[in-house]
Design a protein that fits this description.
This protein is α/β, with parallel strands linked by helices and 394 residues long. It is built from 13 helices and 14 strands. Bound molecules: pyridoxal-5'-phosphate.
């Protein structure tokens, strides 16, 4: 018997407002770019697209690094590319674990044979330079890994001072900027970040599936002096770079339409200007914060440590957080993230990333949340919409 259905409904997910932990909304120009005719992955036109992406990524990362490109896979593959190219069996590696994504990085270090030193933060707190200084007195790691915006907790890790401490101990610095790049400043060269990766679908607002990254010369020297080959063929940076640069040697068939989309998303960021984009993210976070405060709801993270791009808001006692999310999706097409890791079942994670960091999104989210909470039996203390309006007016 065949399990084949006679017919399938036309694909039509309907309109969504994406305010979860990613993907974020895409600009119409990015959808349009994705529909452009395919070229071959070695077509001269496509090589030009890759060169544009490299230049635009250097702008977004604020770096002059030659080795700046995008891995053809999601943000986690960007993480794994950095780990597997830099870590050889037996290397000591310190990973700062403040949530799910720091933990993921730590797992990768172990799988690639590194000797893991795991440093944990206080819940809802960033790491302090003091904490790093203390951890680094007892060891001599080759690499220290940090997450800039830990999406599972909403904590933004201040980087400059902590990087200086790590460099005093001669270790390379690896930073996950998946939930921060494009939404809040990431100055790769000025802050002396050796290795850095991001994902296409968060603050860059391209489709999921690409992981931009950048390596400085110090990090490339560390790769050049490896004693063993990189233990992943697909993620071996020197093989990938032979396609992105120089000889254009076939490595894998680039996902052509995703590259088009990333290029257009980066052009949009370039047109707005990075700094203006950061200011937009800061303003929309500020309006959202005022709204949540006015409604009498609580953030998980204290104000000075919040990432403007991802905001866990605690569900009030007795409220079913998944039930509220279901309502928002059914009634408003609005997606919020659920709690992840320690916050599972306890919080909504509200993303204000890239194209989703907009005034109309903030107003819809606050108004819809107020209604959904009411339907679930919780009356907000005050009007979130009014409080956010006041921020936009002022
Ligand atoms: C989303 C995310 C990742 C993983 O990216 P995927 O595209 O889901 O593989 C890694 N780190 C952080 C901080 C993230 O937010």
């Amino acid at each position: 018997m065949s399990a084949r259905q006679d017919s399938y409904a036309p694909l039509d997910p309907g309109r969504r407002v994406l305010m979860g932990a990613g993907p974020s909304d895409m600009h119409p120009r990015v959808y349009q770019a994705m529909g452009a005719p395919l070229t071959g992955h070695l077509d001269p036109y496509f090589i030009g697209v890759m060169d544009d992406i490299k230049a635009l990524l250097r702008y977004a990362f604020q770096t002059r690094n030659d080795m700046t490109l995008a891995i053809s896979a999601t943000g986690s593959a960007g993480m794994e590319t950095c780990v597997c190219n830099l870590v050889e069996p037996g290397d000591e590696v310190l990973i700062c674990v403040g949530g799910v994504f720091g933990d993921r990085m730590a797992q990768m270090v172990e799988r690639h044979g590194g000797r893991l030193i795991r440093l944990e933060s206080e819940p809802g707190q960033p790491f302090t330079p003091e904490q790093l200084r203390k951890a680094l007195t007892g060891c001599q790691p080759k690499l220290v890994g940090l997450v800039h915006a830990e999406t599972s907790t909403g904590v933004l890790q201040p980087l400059e001072e902590i990087i200086a401490v790590i460099h005093e101990h001669d270790a390379l610095v690896l930073v996950d900027t998946v939930a921060s790049l494009g939404g809040t400043p990431v100055k790769v060269d000025e802050w002396c970040i050796d290795v850095c990766y991001t994902g296409s679908q968060k603050c860059l607002s391209a489709p999921p599936g690409l992981a931009p990254l950048t390596f400085n010369d110090r990090a490339l020297e560390a790769i050049a002096s490896r004693k063993t080959p990189v233990d992943s063929w697909y993620l071996d940076l020197s093989l990938i770079n032979a396609y992105w640069d120089g000889d254009r040697v076939y490595h894998h068939t680039a996902p052509v339409s995703l590259f088009y989309a990333l290029r257009e998303a980066l052009v949009l960021i370039h047109e707005e200007g990075l700094e203006d984009g950061h200011l937009r993210h800061a303003l929309n976070y500020e309006a959202f914060r005022a709204g949540i405060d006015a409604m009498g709801l609580a953030f998980y993270v204290d104000p000075p440590h919040r990432a403007p791009t991802i905001n866990p808001v605690l569900a009030p006692e007795g409220i079913d957080e998944a039930g509220v999310r279901r309502r928002l999706l059914e009634e408003y097409g609005l997606e919020l993230g659920g709690g992840l890791g320690a916050l599972k079942g306890k919080a909504w994670r509200v993303g204000l990333m890239g194209q989703s960091s907009q005034r109309d999104h903030v107003m819809l989210c606050l108004g819809a949340l107020e209604q959904a909470l009411l339907a679930e039996g919780h009356k907000a203390a005050g009007s979130g919409v009014a409080a956010a309006s006041a921020v936009y007016a002022g």
